[in-house]
């Protein structure tokens, strides 16, 4: 599952969750997006000025 990490309309990166085919279903997407959103501050802090 590949999840975009977006802040203020800009793509900061992606979070990639890997497992065997069929391991993830629609019910996992919302939970995974919550995790992806938690890394926004770290990604913003690592961007060059």
Calculate the terminal CA-CA distance, rounded to whole Å: 30 Å
Cα gyration radius (Å): 12 Å
Helix/strand/pairing category: alpha+beta
In spatial order, strands of the major sheet run 1-2
Tell me the strand percentage band.
25-35%
**What's the order of the H and E elements?**
EEHH
Largest sheet: 2 strands, antiparallel
Counting structural domains, the number is: 1
| Contiguous helical run count | 2
Residue stretches low in confidence (pLDDT < 50, at least 5 long) are none
The count of DSSP E runs of length 2 or more, i.e. the number of strands, is: 2
Shape: elongated
Q: Roughly how much helix do the residues carry, as a percent range?
A: 25-40%
User: Kindly state the mean pLDDT as a whole number?
Assistant: 91
How are the SSEs ordered, and which strands pair?
Layout lengths: L1 E6 L2 E7 L9 H13 L1 H6 L4
Antiparallel strand pairs: 1-2
Task: Describe this entry's structure for a reader.
The protein has 49 residues and is an alpha+beta fold. The protein has helices spanning 26-38, 40-45, and strands at residues 2-7, 10-16. 2% of the residues are buried.
């Amino acid at each position: 599952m590949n999840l975009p990490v977006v802040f203020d309309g800009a793509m900061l990166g992606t979070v990639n969750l890997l497992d065997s085919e069929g391991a993830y279903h629609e019910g996992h997407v919302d939970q995974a997006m919550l995790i992806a959103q938690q890394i926004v501050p770290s990604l913003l802090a690592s961007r060059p000025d």
